[in-house]
Queue: 2 jobs
Job 1
Amino acid sequence: MATEKTASPKGMTSSSSSLHESVRAEISKRIENGFYKPGDAIASTAQMSEELGVSAITVKRAVRDLQSAGVLESVPGKGTFVKEKRRFIRELDVWMSSMDNARRLGFEPRMELVSITKERIADPTLALFGPPDNVYLCVRKIIYADGQPIMYDAAYVPTSVPDEIVDEFGEHFIVTALNRHDVAVKDMSLVIDAAPASSGAQKIFAIPNTYPMLRRLYHISTETPGIDVFGVVESPFDRLACSINLSKEAISRMEKK
Amino acid sequence: MATEKTASPKGMTSSSSSLHESVRAEISKRIENGFYKPGDAIASTAQMSEELGVSAITVKRAVRDLQSAGVLESVPGKGTFVKEKRRFIRELDVWMSSMDNARRLGFEPRMELVSITKERIADPTLALFGPPDNVYLCVRKIIYADGQPIMYDAAYVPTSVPDEIVDEFGEHFIVTALNRHDVAVKDMSLVIDAAPASSGAQKIFAIPNTYPMLRRLYHISTETPGIDVFGVVESPFDRLACSINLSKEAISRMEKK
DNA sequence: GAGTGGTCTAGACCACCCT
DNA sequence: GGGTGGTCTAGACCACTCC
């Protein structure tokens, strides 16, 4: 079958080797051109299949890859839409909470407590910080900016932390809540990486497949013996970036070497 | 067709809704169990298709998702293999070059100059730093750790930089080369995010589809007027992470607020 | 009911690798 | 030649939404 074999079906630039790549490029081009604007629905699979002269499955393949790339979003029964691209930048150097950070950038932040449970640290990547193998209070929360979920935070705090402080975890960031009760933060280690979404994050952010999230692993140590906090923050990579400024002082350390 | 409809074909845990997710989970389970070890070839599509009682396409779908997740790697004509998981951690706080950083962590680093061309800054994300719209020298290089490519660096340096310094870009990091010629670095801004691989990075790292890379955008400003460097480093997210330590001094700034 | 995307299948062709 | 993965197709069913 497949009798006619046109090199480049219906006016697509056949720059790529495979057909689904060409289709993907065509859709991307239309978005860049402004033919499809953010929020718009693109042509349906059936339409585009006929229009470009390729099979419906090939169109679906291209669309799925663009979903993964954070460009498109499909709603079953409705259509496939061009995602709004607005990205939140978390400034790590200014050292303020994400909430303050958001406000400064003109976002309307909101925090939602998901659960407080007693758990051991499950995430093997947190082993990087060498946390004691205890049972912790695991505080999970979602941070929104302008209604969009941008972070999913799982913090492991020692069970020895008094209830007055725990009660504030729903409204405040961990560090803020600790500070308000005179538990001074001594030091904070961060590891930034990307990894497939946890099951919790998959539900919250509606991640289509095992797609990587931008992740911040943290270890907060305090002046109070026995109070160390470990945690993971996951964010969709198209909605968050981190910024840092390394000042002259830090650089001078290098020059001395 | 598809007459028999077993809920959970051939002893897979049907924890997921869709079939390809179950297949994916099954493969992941076998890797966790140690049934498939790093470097091993997994069962071929045809074998697994029969073994699990699902169509070959569904197996391929599951394998493709695991490729994207950085778990599997397929070599056409040979088979599909479990990737070795060894990750390089770039310490940003210590403020040393990636080469020194690598040696300290027991990696054997190597740098390979790809090209030095005259270009304007193409990457729109670098606009974040507000670079002047000039023609720059674009220095592209690959950094390897133990033979594995872990970074793809594209640096834009002003054309006014003397040739003696440019000649050293092939062997040294930008900052190191500048320092060696008394161009002192004043300040460095970093943005860490994840984004689909550039075309160059796709080739170097053999990225299957438009899969996101961990990215570091940088802006280096120097004491010498007119010498500012902008750049992008891309890394496969399963091969690199960044670490930072925020010391007590940085935190004290917050407490004062 | 008509249209949408999501899933699954069977079958085919190709390029590649190994023996 | 026989195996592998990669691609493409046609056709089907489902759940969903909107009219």
Job 2
Amino acid sequence: MPKRVQPRSPDGMQLGGLLVFGLLANSYIVPLVKMERIPRATVNRLPLYLRALESLPSDQGTVSSRELAELIKENSAKVRKDLSFLGTYGVRGVGYNVENLRFRIRRDLGLTRIWPVIIVGAGNLGSALAKYGGFDASGFTIVGIYDNDPEKIGTTIGNLTVRSMGSLRRDAQERNVEIGMITTPVPAAQQVAEQLADAGFKSILNFAPMVLRVSPEVEIRRVDLSTELQILGYYVQQSLAEG
Amino acid sequence: MPKRVQPRSPDGMQLGGLLVFGLLANSYIVPLVKMERIPRATVNRLPLYLRALESLPSDQGTVSSRELAELIKENSAKVRKDLSFLGTYGVRGVGYNVENLRFRIRRDLGLTRIWPVIIVGAGNLGSALAKYGGFDASGFTIVGIYDNDPEKIGTTIGNLTVRSMGSLRRDAQERNVEIGMITTPVPAAQQVAEQLADAGFKSILNFAPMVLRVSPEVEIRRVDLSTELQILGYYVQQSLAEG
DNA sequence: AGGTGTGAAACAGTTCACAGCC
DNA sequence: GGCTGTGAACTGTTTCACACCT
């Protein structure tokens, strides 16, 4: 018998990670239950669901967990569990409303706004990312690229001009940038990470093949190609060993 | 009281995923226990351990689990558990032999050889990867880059000439290439994946922002920048909500 | 004393299976 | 009949805590 906290109960509203139940007579806000966070594993799949939903024909009104599961190569039970964490209502016997679900996921991912992002490191990879047009479609826009090489500063990449590290802090604060990508060589990466943390960045996408160490309130994700290849290598070797 | 199978027991040897105990008098090989696989979570960390080990000063003979833990930002219990799956012996009160541990991890990851890798998609990202020198240090070497755009075929990127998709299959088989990276736009990616699978590739590193569907014996890893940003976005938003 | 190896506990994530609603 | 929502079971991963070795 379902006894869990009702997301969106009649007089409850979700607010900043707390489930708040009503304003009492004397104006106390009473947080009854700490709202359960969406599990990390689920958060990691939300972008995939969103993409799947966006790939559906525009006249498709509803979608079943099985359909979604096929699109992201998972099973339908997982999809249903995941979506249940959003407090989204599917309709039994019918499925999920595509439009509504898309909206919910966009909202939970914070995609109701466009996030400005900067790149530090104007080498091959940084330049390629600066020119890559695909971010805008996902809700992000590259607003700056930085380097400390005087040869590179002032040059143009895509529609951006490479700027000096010295101007990073002020630029970022002016434009409210909170997400940065590090595409420098390894020796520079740690220092850059500290500069970003210092400038108030909240999250970092790190392409330098190393583990960065900054204060834990900065969320860091690593995109580590060598590591990915080595992991693939393990499984290739494994498949050989098994014949 | 430890009663687990002894890795590297005096008369046992590890062979193709089986722990084989001794050759009996009449030449029967007796596989007593199916060798426990290294857990995925551990495999994913092996490249990090390797890098950490390689970053140690060359005169450092041993390393403790705590030291390694700091280098990869994990805790020491996890490090010890992970390393125990390799059947590696640390020495109580001392730590792990750096040289030996490095060798074991390289061997388990299959890095005793250099793996040839090809890239499909000679756009910004593919070109940047082709020029990126960092793979060689990790045991991989880019031996070809492919595209189906006649404008690109024949042009030079780094020290590679872009070749046509038509030559992929034969090239790969001649050179025994089993790992491919897909850096094409989304619409081409699925078809390319099928071509790779068909040409006998064992694993694919997919940079196209979509979920590929090929037969399950092909190991696929996704490097999905938009998705990474969206995940970061979630946590940035979350941190705002909490104040 | 210092540090590994590892059962056992705790936690996280996945899958099952089915009641309940359309 | 179809499909969601979700407890419960299960599987995988992390952490604890301590016996044991050097």
